[in-house]
Design a protein that fits this description.
Chain lengths: 140, 82
């Protein structure tokens, strides 16, 4: 499955630390190391603009911004440091936003939508009729 | 993307504020004059950063990736879990 998403990883570490992290640890988790650029946000200047710079800690907290091909932010998620992300939810959101974009906004995706499932035809006809076309599922 | 340098990489600009939003601009009403804030449905603020990529050092801008989906992921520090 190819989503065509360019990942950019950003921390306040220098590019030199990024290099050593890749060499010493990441390359032991992922063969060949992680394949995306690792950016240095020295001083948190970029993180401040994105609202993820923690002044007290001097670091960027875990923030993820999904940006569409027009440069518009479609989704964001920000977590405090102790909890790591769930990339499968980001992938699901990318698939959903790409579906919406393919339909030029004519369709929207209901909660928990996955590729291949019916999406919603946006319009006044849908008002009060969502129950007919979509049943919520609760995942444990 | 900027030219790959053999030696030291030039200092990166950090956030790239549009000319009409420079320091002389009037306070942003949506943020009460504070730092620029991001919001879904609005353009992602451009920036330039130094980067480690493809085994070397380079400067890159967010706008270098125009026309592509981008997942911009901040994290607290190297040698932590991403």
């Amino acid at each position: 499955m190819k989503l065509g998403v360019q990942v950019l990883a950003v921390s306040t570490d220098s590019r030199f630390v990024h290099k050593i992290w890749q060499a010493e640890e990441l390359s032991k988790m992922v063969e060949g190391g992680v394949p995306f650029p690792m950016l240095s946000d020295a001083g948190g200047r970029i993180g401040r603009v994105y609202g993820v710079y923690d002044e007290a800690g001097g670091v960027d907290v875990r923030g993820r911004f999904l940006i569409d091909p027009d440069g518009v932010i479609q989704a964001m998620e920000v977590l405090t440091p102790p909890v790591g992300r769930n990339f499968s939810e980001m992938v699901r959101q990318v698939q959903a936003y790409q579906h919406v974009r393919r339909t030029k906004g004519a369709e929207a995706t209901p909660a928990g939508w996955r590729p291949g499932e019916p999406a919603l035809q946006v319009g006044e006809d849908l008002v009060g009729r969502v129950w007919q076309v979509w049943k919520p599922k609760v995942e444990a | 993307m900027s030219q790959k340098h053999k030696g030291c990489v030039a200092t990166a600009q950090g956030p790239i504020v549009p000319k009409d939003q420079g320091t002389q601009a009037k306070p942003d009403q949506t943020t009460g004059g504070g730092a620029m804030q991001v919001m879904v449905g609005h353009p992602a603020p451009d920036f330039e950063a130094t980067a480690f990529m493809n085994g070397g050092f380079n400067n890159l801008k967010l706008s270098d990736f125009g026309g592509k989906w981008v997942a911009l992921c901040f994290y607290p520090g190297d040698f932590t879990f991403v």
